[in-house]
Amino acid sequence: MKSNWTKLVTSVACLGLLCWAASALAAAAPQEWEVLVPAGVIEQVSVSPAPRITALEGKTIVLRWNGKHNGDVVLNHLAELLAKKYPTAKIIKSYETGPDLNKISATAAESERITKYLLSLKPDIVIASQCD
Questions:
Q1: pTM score
Q2: Residue 83 and which of 16, 55, 74, 120 are 20 to 30 A apart at CA?
Q3: Is there a domain that residue 46 lies in?
Q4: Segments of the chain with pLDDT less than 50
Q5: Residue 89 falls within a domain, yes or no?
Q6: Residues linked to residue 129 through DSSP beta bridges, in sequence order
């Protein structure tokens, strides 16, 4: 049975042999290194904001809910207020017409799917609620 001291000496010797073998291989073949910056490069793209509408009369207003608690309550109340103040506006509750979209988009593909659906409603403005 080997003593702890013998095991330690054997382990150190093996480690030394591995280091020597690795350095011998490295010396035999030239190496190329690519230095990467872990911070990355952020490409900034200028985007113009959408033109602002000046009135809501006769416009299509889409209300979007992401499924968080009480967001639909807020949007339902807002729909009532908008209908009273702007009777010619068309108010669409996307959470009633597309209930599979009442969630927080966790991926770019999910965000794109939700956006395409909202655009299919031909809105002049989209109002979203994120409540808790």
A1: 0.62
A2: 120
A3: no
A4: none
A5: yes
A6: 65
